[in-house]
Structures are given as C-alpha cells and as structure tokens.
Amino acid sequence: MYCWRVGCSLACIGIVSGRVWLPATVRKRLADTMSATMRRRVTLSIVPLLFAAGLIFYKTRTSLALLRTVWSTGVIAARPEVVSLGSAGAAFDALHRSINYFLVIWPALAFGILISAAVRAYVPPDLWKRMLAVRGTASQLRAGLAGTPLMLCSCCVAPIFGAVYESSARLAPALTLMLASPALNPAALALTFMLFGPGIGAMRLILSVAGVAAIGPSVELLFPRLEVATSMELNNGSRQESLARALYAVVVRTVPALAAGLLVSMFVVQSLPAGAFAAGTPRIIAILFVATLAVPLALPTFLEIPLALSLLSAGLPSGAAIALLFAGPAINLPSLLATARIAGWKVAVSVAVFVWMIALAGGLLM
Questions:
Q1: Coil, strand, or helix at residue 239?
Q2: Separation of alpha carbons 357 and 121, rounded Å
Q3: Sorting pLDDT into bands at 50, 70 and 90, what band is 228?
Q4: At a CB cut-off of 8 Å and minimum separation 6, what does 154 contact?
Q5: In whole angstroms, what is the distance from residue 165 CA to residue 202 CA?
Q6: Is 300 helix (H, G, I), strand (E, B) or coil?
Q7: Do the Cβ atoms of 172 and 140 come closer than 8 Å?
Q8: Which of 111, 202, 244, 328 has its C-alpha lying 20 to 30 A from 359's C-alpha?
Q9: How many angstroms separate the CA atoms of 143 and 147, rounded?
Q10: In the predicted structure, residue 334 carries a pLDDT above the cut 60
Q11: Which of 114, 133, 120, 226 is nearest to 163 (CA)?
C-alpha cells in the first residue's frame, strides 16, 4: 500500500512538472479522458445558448406582432388589470394585480430562470472570467450586446444577473446586462418613436444608452470589495452543479424576492390618490413625483408606453413621460430585492439611486 501511494505521488509530481512518470498506455488513457471531459464541457456550454435562442425567438415573434398592430392602428392597448395610474382599473386589488402580472410575464420569467440555471450548471466560471474580467469598454460592450436581444423586463432578467455576477466575479458587466435587456429593448424603443415622435424617442434612447453604459461601472467603483469577495469564493470552490440543483438554487434565491417586491409595488399603485396625476401640477414636482414612482413600479414589457401616454393625456409635462419611459422598464422593486439578495443592499440601493437621477435629469431636460 505504501509503495502504491508513493507511486501515485510520484506520478502526480511528474504530471505537474511536465516529466514522464507514467507508462505510455496510462498517459494515453489520461489524455483521452481529459479530451472527452473538455468536449463534454464545451458541448454543455451550448445549453444556455439554446435557451437564449428560444427566448429571442419568442420575444421577437411577440414584439413583431405588436409592432404590426401598432403600425396599422396607431394605438397600443393598456393593461389596467395589471398596472394603471389614476382611477382606471380601481376594481383590482394588489393581490389580483400581482397574479395578473405573473400571468403576463411567466413565459419570459421561465426562460430567465432556465438560462440562469444552465449558466450555473454548464458554463465554467473561467470562461466568464476570460470574457468579462478585463476592465474597460470591451467587457461592458459585450455585456450590453448580450442583454439587448433578450428583451426581458427587469423582473425576468434578474435571475440571469445573478448567474453572470457569480460566475464572472464582476459586478459592472452583470449590471450592464441586467439593465440593457429592458432599457435597450429594440421593440420598445421603436414603439416609443412611433407613438411619441422623434423628440421623446431620441431622449429615451439617450437616457437608456447612458444608463446602461454608466451605472454598472459606477456601482462597481463604489463597491470594489464585493468583486474581490466573489472572486475568492469562485477560486476556493467548484461551481459545477447539476441542472436540477441549479434550478432549485435560482428559484429559491430570486422568485420569493420577486413575489414580495411585486406585491409591495402593487400596494403602492393601489394606494395612489385619485388626483395624483391631475393637470396643473407644477412641472418640476410632476417630474420628481413620476421619477420617484417609476423606480419601484413593476411593469411588464411595453406597459410603460401606454402609461406614459396616459400621463400626457392627463396634462402632465413630457418630462414626466420621459422619466417613466426610462426608469419604469429599467428597474423595479422586485428586481431590486432580487439584486439585494444576490449582491447586497448597497448595490441595489445604488442602482436605484442612479436610475432615479438619470430619469430626473432627463425629465427636467426635456
């Protein structure tokens, strides 16, 4: 037994040092095993891409259908049973609104959870490190380009944020991807130009690009120690796990936070006074109020557009509509609670403050 252990130790030393300590047949078997393992890792890494492709197909199909409808009719339908500002939809309480909200977003949320679990289970952390570890515009651009075609609302992209953050050990690219998915949704931007005109459409685009480009790096600059702590965790332990285990971890970590945040958000909507959006409100106060409300407000994809139209119809300034069009889809209370569970309260609060500041500045400049 002692001789066998010594032989294994010498073999390991020989492998590490590059010298040959094993018979040729054993070396060949080891090489074949390592090659098969690498092929399996590469093959399984495609699974998240397949889920992402399915999501992009689903979102593109539904978005094109909506664009055709709006192009032919010139109007976009509201959803007072989910979220409404003012007296419309007053018959629905917060619980029913929350249920209706989940009925609207569940396919996209399912895709977000599946992508997150597949990333945790099948994508090696060192791959994310190679893609996103370098600081600068390159990693930010990759993250923004990865998030934009997903076209997820901020609730549904929250699970993906967690997987990317934990795998890459980088806060800035993970936040950039999370913000790009709802804020740079191509269909939502196209609908804004179609229904509001070039002025409001261009301002929304400028604010969205600025927010996606600046918020992630700014938050990471504020909290660099979070990045170091996550890197240590990844280096000290293996992150590979089964898909079922990863699914369980993602659901337990994000869905309760999303549900709690959604219920609170709907209670906020329910408690708004009937005259909160009455005409005649001073411009600065109206923009400040709408920007503050839009940050925690939970909105499914595209719903910010009919709500912003209703603000203009009520006589509020265009700056209030801009604040809602940017901050409404970018983040909400459910996604902030999920972010807090994953990266900490300081990160979530900082993201909320930055989004609020950009929305307020854009509204005042409009």
A1: coil
A2: 37
A3: very low
A4: 178, 181, 182, 329, 330, 331, 332, 334, 335
A5: 31
A6: coil
A7: yes
A8: 111
A9: 6
A10: yes
A11: 120
CA atoms within 13 A on the CB side of 171: 27
Q: Which residues lie closer than 8 Å to 200 by C-beta, 6 or more apart? A: 192, 318, 321, 322, 325, 366
Q: Give residue 17's pLDDT band: very low, low, confident or very high (50, 70, 90).
A: very low
Report pLDDT digits (tens) over 196-223. 999 999 999 999 999 999 999 999 999 8
Torsion of CA 195, 176, 121, 35, to 10 degrees: 110
What is the chain's mean pLDDT, rounded? 84
Residue 358 corresponds to which tokens in the numbers above? Answer: 């950009």
Q: Which helix (H) or strand (E) holds 42?
A: helix 24-44
d(CA 155, CA 227): 23
Cα–Cα distance between 171 and 144 in angstroms, integer? Answer: 13
CB 112 within 8 A of CB 151: no
Please give the backbone phi and psi of residue 90, each rounded to the nearest 5 degrees, phi first: -65, -20
14 pLDDT more than 70: no
Spatial separation of the C-alpha atoms in residues 286 and 247, rounded to whole Å: 43
Give the separation between CA 110 and CA 177, rounded to whole angstroms.
Answer: 18
> What Rg, from alpha-carbon coordinates, does the chain have?
24
